[in-house]
Amino acid sequence: GKRNIYGDKLAVLAQLEVVYDDGEMMTVGSDGSWKTSMGPRVAAEFYDGEAYDASLAEGSCSEENWKPVEELEFPKAKLLSPEGPPIRKIETLKPQKIWKSPSDKVIVDFGQNLVGGVRLRVSGPKGHQITLTHTEVLENDEVATRPLRDCKAIDTITLSGDAIEWEPKFTFHGFRYVQVENWPLNDGIPLASGLEAVVIHTDMEATGSFKCSEPMVNQLQNNIRWGMRGNFVGIPTDCPQRDERLGWTGDIQVFAPTANFLYDTSGMLSSWLKDVSLEQIQDFNGVVPQVVPNVIDPRLNTPQAVWGDVSIITPWTMYNSFGDKKFLTNQYPSMQAWLDAIPRGPDKLWDPNTHQLGDWLDPSAPPSEPANGKTDPHFVANAYLVHVTELMVKIATLLNQPASEIDKYTQDAAHLKQAFQNTYITPTGRLSPDTQTSLSLALSFSLFASPTQATAASSRLARLAATSRFRIATGFAGTPLILPSLSSTGHVQEAYRMLLETGCPSWLYTVSMGATTMWERWDSMLPPGAINPGEMTSFNHYALGSVGAWLHSVVGGLSLSASASELTFAPVPGGTVTWAKAKYREVSCKWEIEGSVFKMVVCVPPNKGAVVRVPGGKEERVGSGRWEFETAYEGKEWPPKEILDPFAMYDDVERPKA
């Protein structure tokens, strides 16, 4: 990464406000008269951890211990208050288990992969040093530090002889397990009462919830929520534990629809999107950096579809989630700059010589080559290019941009779609490449030339799901779209079958392996409990949790869209799910199947209208209030059949005897 991005000197700008009993306030601003002295936090590093010496906590009033400060020129940048809420301590978790590992190390399990730090209460001899090592998982019953790469994630506490209560203030860790070394009491094993994990994240209002009759799906939903909490610490990051913790643009682009349902992200993501614009326009001639704030090697900031498309897709997502056009107005120059900056080939699609990350972390990609999946990366890039250009037509129209501008984007979108069809789609609707991701992109983005082609493609996608034994074969780009692509084209049971699959790779495989957050890879942990050998193996990465949007809208039946004039309640039952409920603020939808009867209750807030669709029934429009619906229901065949390779050796399928 880069250093000294914003200057080469660390400084503080402070204002101390003293309020007296009579209400009068005295303000003291930092200036050259202030003095400085060493405190007990003798070292603090974002990745490596904090060092604390309790013997320095009292400080000293002796003049010789205080040094003059250097007064620096005031920075020319404008100071702005953040639009989002601050980072706060949200809750604490008690240890679930404390034991000694095979190597005689003391390990504490907090039962949940979280982000924050450990608060401890302890006393011991002066100079005695305790070490805390934080990890997300175990391997061979020991803390697994390899996924941290060069990040140490170690806090050290030096005791003073008195009892202390301590927690880190200038670092945080992503962890479930903590290895405690040199605890001064109880034969080196701390009591549960002496430790607790402090959970931190940006203090957003929780707004949405989902629950259904399947416990493993509920755990998946819980994992999605915890994964979001751990990666919304000031900015939307990819992961919170290793030597990265960066604002990767592609991750939030695919996850934002889910995030916006679970929490009110409007302030935090509004601020972050402004940073996207500043980095993109001021420093990179319209190219959106892959991470914002941009702290990585400049050579990595090449134009990337999916990642750069955050500048158009995420403001549109924010508008649809929160109904405020300011997200579009504020980011419109950024959107235009990105489309202008994309390197093009002769047909105006992406320049085929650009390097693309494509369907990142497709499970078929080798561990060391995460971009080398089944789907041509330029197919992914060009599908997204057509999509974002069509979004620009909608956005420009909504913002009343000049007719000439709207016409330009309309013509560009039509030309790009035709070029895409000429390049990738046969007259019968077959795609090249022919993968779960390619079909999901083409169906979700309406890239086919005719309904007949789209119908053939949806049938092909359902067949690919069956031949994969309903195991997922998508990476970051395809994962948000595969279940919507199936359920919206009549293949509801296939979508539910993929959701409920527990083999690797699948959403519920991670749950079956004890995950409490979403993983970076479908197989971050391999079936025996070994960690994937790939360099990038995070156990707290929300991108694959983008399925949450489908859970809320299709299983839960609750869709929120500012581009539609009304709320929509349209649950689509399937699989073995017999009831589900989704809630967003005052809006809620709950349904259940009793025998051959489908029952649903919806709540519409004041001054709102809603469209209600029950399975097999007519569409109804209702006003505010509580509404009950009941209709006859007959489920489709379950489970949909797998299509097995007669020559494959399946561990879980009995082969017929010769």
Automatic annotation (TrEMBL):
Catalytic activity: Hydrolysis of terminal non-reducing alpha-L-rhamnose residues in alpha-L-rhamnosides
One of the protein's GO biological processes: carbohydrate metabolic process
Domain of life: Eukaryota
GO molecular function, one term: alpha-L-rhamnosidase activity
Span of domain Alpha-L-rhamnosidase C-terminal: 567-624
Pfam families cross-referenced by the UniProt entry: Bac_rhamnosid (PF05592), Bac_rhamnosid6H (PF17389), Bac_rhamnosid_C (PF17390), Bac_rhamnosid_N (PF08531)
Keyword annotations of the record: Hydrolase
Chain ranges of the Alpha-L-rhamnosidase concanavalin-like domain: 101-201
Keyword Hydrolase: yes
Limits of the Alpha-L-rhamnosidase six-hairpin glycosidase domain: 206-555
InterPro entries, alphabetized: 6-hairpin_glycosidase_sf (IPR008928), 6hp_glycosidase-like_sf (IPR012341), Alpha_rhamnosid (IPR016007), Bac_rhamnosid6H (IPR035396), Bac_rhamnosid_C (IPR035398), Bac_rhamnosid_N (IPR013737), Rhamnosid_concanavalin (IPR008902)
Bacterial alpha-L-rhamnosidase N-terminal domain span: 2-90
EC number of the protein: 3.2.1.40
Name the UniProt record assigns to this protein: alpha-L-rhamnosidase
